[in-house]
Amino acid sequence: MSYSIAALNQMSREEFTKALGSIFEQTPEIATQSWRERPFDDVQKLHQVMADIVNEMSESEQLKLICAHPDLGSKFKMAESSVLEQSTVGLDQLSAIEYDRFQKLNQAYKEKFLFPFIIAVRNHTKNSILAAFEQRLQNTIEIEKHRAIAEIIEIARWRLILAVK
Fold first, then answer.
1. Residue 140 CB-density burial (10 A; 0-12 exposed, 13-18 middle, 19+ buried)
2. Catalytic residue at 47?
3. In degrees to the nearest 10, what's the CA dihedral of 37, 39, 41, 42?
4. One of 47, 69, 124, 146 is an active-site residue; which one?
5. Each residue of 95-124: pLDDT tens digit?
6. Residues contacting residue 25 through CB under 8 Å, at least 6 positions apart
7. Reported pTM
8. Domains in the chain and their CATH numbers?
9. Which of 69, 103, 118, 144 is deepest in the core (most CB within 10 A)?
C-alpha cells in the first residue's frame, strides 16, 4: 500500500508505525521514533530522519538490525519486502548451482563476520551481487558493519520510494 506524505504527516504514532514499520527489517521502532519529527516535506526528508535514527543507534542495536536481514537467495521464510526485492534480480529463481554458490558465500560471510551479507539488491544484478560477495569477504569486520548499515539505509530508501507517493 502506498501513502502520501500528507497522509503520513496526519497519522497517529500507531498508524504511522503500522504503515512504515517494515521499512527497516523487523525494526518498527525506527518508524515510531521518526514519527516524532513530523511533518515531513517529502520522502527524502523522511528517509533522512530514519537514516539519522539508524546512524545514532548503539552498536548493539545496529548489530541487531543487521542480523534481522535474511540471507540472499535463501529459501527460508522472509519478510514480504525482502522476497520482492530479491525477486527483482532473480534470487528467487536460482539454479541448483547458483543456489549452492549463494549458500556457500552466505556461510563464509557469516562465519567471518557473524552477521548476514547485506546489499541493496535493487542496485545490482545477480552477477554484481556475487562479485560484491567475493570482494567484501576481504574486508575487516568494522568496514563490513559500516557497509551493512549503509546498505540497510539504501534498502530503506527504495522501500520508502515504493511506499510513499
1. exposed
2. no
3. 70
4. 69
5. 889 889 989 999 999 999 999 999 999 999
6. 65, 68, 69, 70, 79, 81, 82, 152, 155
7. 0.90
8. 5-163 (1.10.3330.10)
9. 118
